[in-house]
């Protein structure tokens, strides 16, 4: 594993911590390494340091910020394989998914660099009323201030990058808090950034439990909080942080609709690819499948016939698609939800530390496997009478991040775009499709705000209006 200084990157240097904790490989429980454990006191110190450099960070020339972002992308690319292997070990996620994560991370930093030159305002015609005659008006975008970014365990490097890179592009100091289970890749990333940055304190990292998060998010000096995680935690952060701006990506129970004119082989393939990648630990993985009755039997037959194609095992193996969840408690929870669903189960069972891919047929409303985000290798299939019923079922969820529709009909595709209450509609591809340059976020309990460098930079800046009488 890579080396970086002991302690946590707080201020211009690294501050030692009293406690450290072991980070374990979810697949076999072996120790990957140790990580420093932060405290609320360290979190407050990080805020002090960020506030102290905020004006200087905001004054950095555009060329300096753009160069830094591009240099970080290049540094990540040089160490691509090392990051991939580290991510496998600390997340337990299959190697193929960790390779995708690193590739997307590099694109995110490159895209953030491009957004620096697009950070500008516009003139405003003030003379629409007589009182504006002779006035000149324009607005510009200014950094929102110190940003706190809190990332989830499932894509720790990528999620942290979606917090850090746009903050740098916007001219904001940023403090990132990784998930307690997966701090190592993010620590290394922050170390790389600080080695390249003109002001090391512009990017800091504090680990720790919920008390550390609370110390960061409730500090009134913070300009914005960007959080990726569960709805319950996100709602609490938004309440406690008010009136600080919060950007929340809170997950979902993504639906895939199979219309009567769908390519059934492609739709079945989408469920296999989209339901089990990252061992199902993705907020836009396929969880609910709604199949129109006239094709339900043919679709289900295709899906179940191929379920054994999903390779289960050691995540270090290139062929593996499903491996251990992040910890035993998560495995126990998902297994309990399967049992409580009362649905007919195909596949499944625990093999060592791994929960095998599971399909639940005709899952009713009112059970957690259908209503909530299961975050495991489980797909629920329900037969519906027509597309109308399917769309209604999609919208009945309290979540709304991504949904997809398989159909050959342009009319159905545009109906989905108009009617589905989600942040993104994907036609004839998995709901888990995400380009890191597109606006990404949800509605309802799936959160508020949008990620993607262009959109995150807008979220992390505020307009300042200028009115001049020459």
From TrEMBL:
EC number: 1.2.1.3
SUPFAM superfamilies tied to this protein: ALDH-like
Record domain Aldehyde dehydrogenase: where: 22-464
Keyword set, alphabetical order: Oxidoreductase
The keyword Endoplasmic reticulum belongs to this UniProt entry's keyword annotation: no
Protein name (record): Aldehyde dehydrogenase (EC)
PANTHER family xrefs: ALDEHYDE DEHYDROGENASE
Family: Belongs to the aldehyde dehydrogenase family.
Source organism (scientific name): Amycolatopsis camponoti
Parts forming coiled coils: none
Any Pfam family: Aldedh
Lineage: Bacteria, Bacillati, Actinomycetota, Actinomycetes, Pseudonocardiales
InterPro entries to which the protein is assigned, alphabetical: Ald_DH/histidinol_DH, Ald_DH_C, Ald_DH_N, Aldehyde_DH_dom, ALDH-related_metabolic_enz
GO-annotated molecular function: lactaldehyde dehydrogenase (NAD+) activity
Keyword Oxidoreductase: yes
The protein's enzyme class: oxidoreductase
């Amino acid at each position: 594993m890579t080396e970086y200084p002991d302690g946590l990157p707080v201020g211009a240097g690294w501050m030692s911590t009293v406690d450290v904790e072991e980070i374990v490989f979810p697949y076999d429980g072996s120790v990957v390494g140790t990580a420093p454990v932060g405290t609320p006191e360290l979190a407050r110190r990080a805020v002090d340091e960020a506030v102290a450099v905020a004006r200087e960070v905001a004054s950095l020339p555009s060329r300096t910020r753009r160069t830094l972002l591009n240099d970080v992308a290049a540094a990540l690319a040089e160490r691509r394989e090392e990051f991939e292997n580290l991510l496998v070990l600390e997340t337990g996620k299959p190697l193929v998914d960790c390779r995708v994560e690193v590739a997307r991370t590099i694109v995110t930093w490159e895209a953030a660099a491009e957004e620096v030159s697009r950070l500008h305002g516009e003139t405003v015609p003030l003379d629409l009323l007589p009182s504006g005659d002779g006035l000149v008006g324009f607005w510009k975008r200014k950094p929102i201030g110190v940003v706190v970014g809190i990332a989830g365990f499932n894509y720790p490097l990528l999620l942290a990058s979606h917090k850090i890179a746009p903050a740098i592009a916007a001219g904001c100091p940023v403090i990132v808090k990784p998930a307690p289970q997966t701090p190592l890749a993010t620590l290394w990333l922050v170390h790389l950034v600080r080695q390249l940055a003109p002001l090391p304190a512009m990017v800091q990292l504090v680990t720790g439990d919920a008390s550390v998060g609370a110390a960061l998010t409730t500090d009134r000096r913070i300009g914005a909080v960007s959080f990726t995680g569960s709805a319950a935690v996100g709602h609490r952060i938004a309440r406690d942080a008010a009136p600080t701006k919060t950007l929340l990506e809170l997950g979902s129970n993504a639906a895939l609709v199979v219309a009567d004119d769908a390519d059934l082989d492609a739709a079945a393939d989408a469920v296999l690819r989209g339901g089990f990648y990252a061992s199902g630990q993705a907020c836009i993985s396929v969880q609910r499948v709604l199949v129109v009755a006239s094709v339900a039997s043919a679709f289900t037959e295709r899906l179940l016939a191929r379920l054994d194609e999903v390779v289960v095992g050691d995540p270090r193996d290139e062929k593996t698609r499903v491996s251990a969840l992040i910890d035993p408690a998560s495995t126990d929870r998902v297994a309990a939800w399967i049992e409580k669903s009362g649905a007919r189960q195909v596949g499944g069972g625990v093999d060592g530390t791994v929960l095998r891919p599971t399909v639940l047929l005709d899952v009713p409303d009112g059970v957690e496997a259908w209503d909530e985000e299961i975050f495991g290798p489980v797909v629920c299939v329900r037969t519906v009478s027509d597309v109308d019923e399917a769309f209604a079922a999609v919208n009945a969820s309290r979540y709304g991040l991504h949904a997809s529709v398989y159909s050959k009909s342009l009319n159905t595709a545009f109906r989905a775009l108009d009617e589905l209450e989600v942040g993104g509609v994907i036609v004839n591809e998995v709901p888990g499709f995400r380009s890191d340059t597109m606006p990404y976020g949800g509605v309802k309990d799936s959160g508020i705000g949008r990620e993607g460098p262009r959109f995150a930079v807008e979220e992390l800046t505020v307009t300042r209006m200028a009115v001049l009488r020459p």
